[in-house]
Amino acid sequence: MFDSIQRGLSDALKKLRGRGRLTADNIREGLREVRRALLEADVNFTVVTKFIQRVEERSVGQDVLARVDPSEQIVKIVFDELVALMGPVDPKISFAKDRPTILMMCGLQGAGKTTTTGKLGLTLQSQGRRPLLVAADLQRPAAVDQLKIIGQQLGLPVYSEMTDPVQVCRNAVTFAKQNNLDTIILDTAGRLQIDAALMEELQQIDRLVKPDQLFLVVDAMIGQEAANVAKTFNDTLSLNAVILTKLDGDARGGAALSIKEVTGVPIKFVGMGEKLDKLEPFEPEGMASRILG
Ligand code: GDP
């Protein structure tokens, strides 16, 4: 595993060492190789700097200098640190006992909210829940129809009405109770960029509908920007988990690391394709491998 990064690191260390013993400075230099790999994987710049500092301290502390092949040990430290940072992961969702559980999906437009609402509905249905999908994205006119089609495909009920988002969500709760549906998934509006109006709308739903859990849907392809997006949403809404989408593409997954490091909010699921059965639990080990390339 990580042959290329280990080879690069190994070569760098050999060159630096020259004839003498490897020094802590050599390790610092050698870690540039790891730093380059993380930046290439689109990990946020500040996150990379802090991460490399930690690995450097651990590497020197663990006396990798004495090893025949220190690069192997350093790469292991890097891998372990990545896994520790992105975990622990709990793909389970906790549910209320005597009333419907409300899950609120939020995120930027195009992140994959509507699709993920369907995917989550399907996952929960397969676990024996009775989900209701709620079309609370009244900003993007096509979103309501899109969710209705997804509901039809999955055989899941969809609640919609063209009033205002809070009204839609409130009435959806009543509808769920009347129809014995136990899990309400709110597909809320997004914008192309974060703006005050979007945040105000989401805060209003949060305040008045009181969802049990808030999930942020983030497109893994936005790379470095993911950390800023996650931070802004978390500062305003206090997120429970993140769902990272489009990991079937060629995004290296640096977003996963940045989001967790900057917000502390765990990533619960990943989207692995456009199809509705392509939602998987997040696995830090797999992501660490992907990030290291
Ligand atoms: P929304 O604006 O956040 O509701 O985003 P949509 O759910 O409409 O998704 C935007 C686009 O991303 C659509 O074309 C989806 O099919 C696509 N999409 C969503 N999730 C994934 C994923 O995990 N992988 C891929 N490849 N495409 C996805």
UniProtKB/TrEMBL annotation:
Gene Ontology cellular component terms for the protein in this record: signal recognition particle
Domain SRP54-type proteins GTP-binding stretches: 266-279
Binding-site residues, GTP: 107-114, 187-191, 245-248
Coiled-coil regions listed in the entry: none
GO BP terms in the entry: SRP-dependent cotranslational protein targeting to membrane
UniProt entry keywords in alphabetical sequence: Cytoplasm, GTP-binding, Hydrolase, Nucleotide-binding, Ribonucleoprotein, RNA-binding, Signal recognition particle
EC number assigned by the record: 3.6.5.4
Compartments where found: Cytoplasm
Entry note about domains: Composed of three domains: the N-terminal N domain, which is responsible for interactions with the ribosome, the central G domain, which binds GTP, and the C-terminal M domain, which binds the RNA and the signal sequence of the RNC.
Function: Involved in targeting and insertion of nascent membrane proteins into the cytoplasmic membrane. Binds to the hydrophobic signal sequence of the ribosome-nascent chain (RNC) as it emerges from the ribosomes. The SRP-RNC complex is then targeted to the cytoplasmic membrane where it interacts with the SRP receptor FtsY.
Subunit-structure text: Part of the signal recognition particle protein translocation system, which is composed of SRP and FtsY.
Name recorded for this polypeptide: Signal recognition particle protein
The species this protein was found in: Tuwongella immobilis
Organism lineage: Bacteria, Pseudomonadati, Planctomycetota, Planctomycetia, Gemmatales
Residues of the full protein shown: 1 to 293 of 487
